[in-house]
Design a protein that fits this description.
The chain has eleven helices and 19 strands. The chain is α+β, with helices and mostly antiparallel strands.
Length: 460
C-alpha cells in the first residue's frame, strides 16, 4: 500500500518541474535533472533537455565532481570508528613521505591544513591522471599556502592525500574500498568511477553564443578521491538518506552527525555557511542544508539535505558553467518543505523504565543568578535545560553512566551537568561548568559563588 507521504501533491510537483525548467533555460544547460527525497526515499524527479523527446531521467549518470569528497570522508571516518586512526593524528603517522606530514587528518577533512587549492599545472580536471602519477606531482614544491590550522582554504590535493591514506590503511585501491564499504551496502549500483550508459555527455556552452563544445572526460588518477565519481539522481537520493540518518552498515548515525557538525568557518568573502568533516554546510531560507557541490569540465552538481525537514534534493546538469545547481537544489528543498511540511512525531509518554521520582524532582524552574531556566526530562534519561524567557543557552544533555549529564550542543557542548546534594541527601543545586543553578534566584546559603546579601531582596 502506498503511503500518502510517498507521493507529492500535483501542485508541488508542478512547482518543482517549473524550477528545473527555469534552471535549464536560464542556465543554458544541454540537460538538467532534479530530484527530491523525503524521509530517505526519492519521491520526485524531473528533467529538461535541449533535445526534444530525449530528456534524461533519475537513472542517467552525470559526473558529480567534488561530491566525491563526501564519499572519501566517509571512508576516513570508518577507519576512525574502527580505531585505525584518530582524527588528530598527524598524517605522517599513517602516510609517510608526503612532505606535509604535520597536518592532521581532521585538518585535511575540514580544509584547514593550509594546502593549496589546486595542483601545479596543467589544469588537473582537464588532463589525464597520468600527468601527475604520484603525490609529489599533486603537491608540488610548495604545497602549503597558509599557516596550518589557521583558516578554511578549500583544497583538492588535501582529499587526494586522504584517498591515499585510505589505500595505505586498507591495502586496497580507493575505488575498491569505496565500492565495498559504501556503494554496495547502500545499493548505489549506478555510482561508478567511469561512466556507464545511460550517461550524459559533458559540454561547454559558449558564454556569448548558443553553441556548444564537447568537454574531455579524463580519469583523474591519484586525484580521483577529490572528484572522480559519476552518479545518478536516484543514487544520490539514497546517499542523502544516509547523510541524514546514518546506516550501521556504513557509518553510525552519531558519526554522520559528527561529519555534519561545523569544523571550519568559510574563508573571507565566501558563501554564508561552513564546512564539517567532508560536508558543506549552508544556511538558506531559514534552514540548515548539508551536502556538497561539485563540478568538473562539462558538469555541475549539488546535493543538499535538510535533516530537520526530512527533505533532500539533487540537481545535475551537463554544462561547464551556467546552471546554478546549488541554488536550484536549495529551492527544491524549500518548495517541498514549505508546501508539505514534515509531520511531527506523535507525542508519547516516556517509557516507564526511564522515569523515577529522583529524576522528576529535578524538573521545573532553576535559576542562574536572576536568569530563569527550565529543566525537563527527555528520552533515555537525558535532560534539556532551556531559558524560560527570551533567548539564551539552551542545551540537551546525555546521561552519563556514573551519574550526571554531558552537554550535546550549543554553549554547553561537552560540559558536565551534575547534581550537588547536601549531607542529608537533599538537592542543593545544579553545577554546570562552574555555573550554579538554584531553585530560587540567588538563593540564601553557601551554594551561590560570592555569597548572597543576608538582608535579602528589597524594594526602593
Amino acid at each position: 500500500m502506498t503511503s500518502p507521504f510517498d507521493v507529492l501533491l500535483p501542485s508541488t510537483e508542478r512547482a518543482l518541474l517549473h524550477r528545473v525548467a527555469v534552471a535549464q533555460s536560464e542556465g543554458r544547460a544541454p540537460s538538467f535533472v532534479g530530484a527530491v527525497a523525503r524521509e530517505g526515499t526519492m519521491v520526485w524527479s524531473g528533467s529538461r533537455s535541449c533535445v526534444d523527446g530525449h530528456a534524461p531521467d533519475a537513472d542517467t549518470q552525470y559526473r558529480i565532481g567534488s561530491l566525491t569528497k563526501v564519499f572519501t570522508a566517509v571512508l576516513v571516518m570508518r577507519l576512525r570508528d574502527e580505531g585505525r586512526l584518530d582524527l588528530n593524528d598527524p598524517l605522517e603517522k599513517h602516510l609517510s613521505g608526503t612532505g606535509v606530514g604535520d597536518v592532521t587528518i581532521a585538518q585535511l577533512l575540514g580544509h584547514t591544513a593550509g594546502l593549496a587549492a589546486e595542483t601545479p599545472g596543467p589544469w588537473w580536471e582537464r588532463t589525464p591522471g597520468t600527468v601527475r602519477p604520484d603525490l609529489a606531482d599533486v603537491l608540488g614544491d610548495e604545497p602549503l599556502v597558509h599557516p596550518v590550522g589557521r583558516l578554511h582554504h578549500y583544497s583538492n590535493p588535501g582529499y587526494t592525500l586522504l584517498g591515499s591514506l585510505v589505500e595505505q590503511l586498507r591495502g586496497v585501491s580507493w575505488e575498491e574500498a569505496l565500492r565495498g564499504e559504501i556503494l554496495e551496502p547502500l545499493g548505489m549500483v549506478r555510482t561508478t568511477v567511469q561512466p556507464v550508459a545511460p550517461h550524459a555527455g559533458g559540454w561547454a556552452v559558449h558564454p556569448w553564443a548558443d553553441v556548444m563544445l564537447p568537454e574531455p572526460s579524463e580519469h583523474l588518477g591519484v586525484m580521483a578521491p577529490a572528484g572522480q565519481l559519476w552518479s545518478t539522481a536516484e543514487d544520490l537520493c539514497r546517499f542523502a538518506g544516509f547523510l541524514a540518518q546514518g546506516d550501521d552498515r556504513v557509518l553510525s548515525a552519531a558519526s554522520v552527525a559528527e561529519m555534519r557538525t561545523p569544523a571550519a568557518p568559510p574563508g573571507a568573502g565566501e558563501w554564508e555557511g561552513g564546512y564539517g568533516l567532508g560536508v558543506q554546510l549552508l544556511r538558506k531560507d531559514g534552514r540548515t542544508l548539508i551536502g556538497h557541490t561539485g563540478s568538473l569540465p562539462g558538469f555541475v552538481a549539488c546535493l543538499w539535505v535538510s535533516v530537520e525537514d526530512g527533505v533532500a534534493s539533487v540537481a545535475l546538469a551537463n554544462a561547464t558553467s551556467g546552471p546554478l545547481t546549488p541554488l536550484v537544489a536549495a529551492d527544491l528543498v524549500r518548495i517541498v518543505a514549505d508546501a508539505e511540511p514534515r509531520f511531527p512525531e506523535p507525542w508519547r509518554p516516556l517509557p516507564e523504565a526511564e522515569v523515577d521520582q529522583e529524576l522528576l524532582e529535578l524538573t521545573g524552574p532553576w535559576y542562574w543568578g536572576t536568569y530563569a531556566f527550565g529543566l525537563r526530562l527527555a528520552s533515555n534519561r537525558s535532560v534539556v535545560l532551556e531559558p524560560l524567557r527570551g533567548v539564551g543557552r539552551k542545551a540537551t544533555f546525555r546521561a552519563l553512566p556514573d551519574g550526571g549529564w554531558i552537554g550535546l550542543n550549543g554553549y554547553y557542548a561537552g560540559e558536565t551537568l551534575r547534581v550537588v546534594r547536601r549531607e542529608d541527601g537533599s538537592v542543593s543545586h545544579l553545577d554546570l561548568a562552574s555555573f550554579v543553578f538554584t531553585r530560587e534566584p540567588y538563593e540564601q546559603g553557601d551554594a551561590v559563588p560570592g555569597g548572597v546579601d543576608e538582608a535579602g531582596w528589597r524594594g526602593l
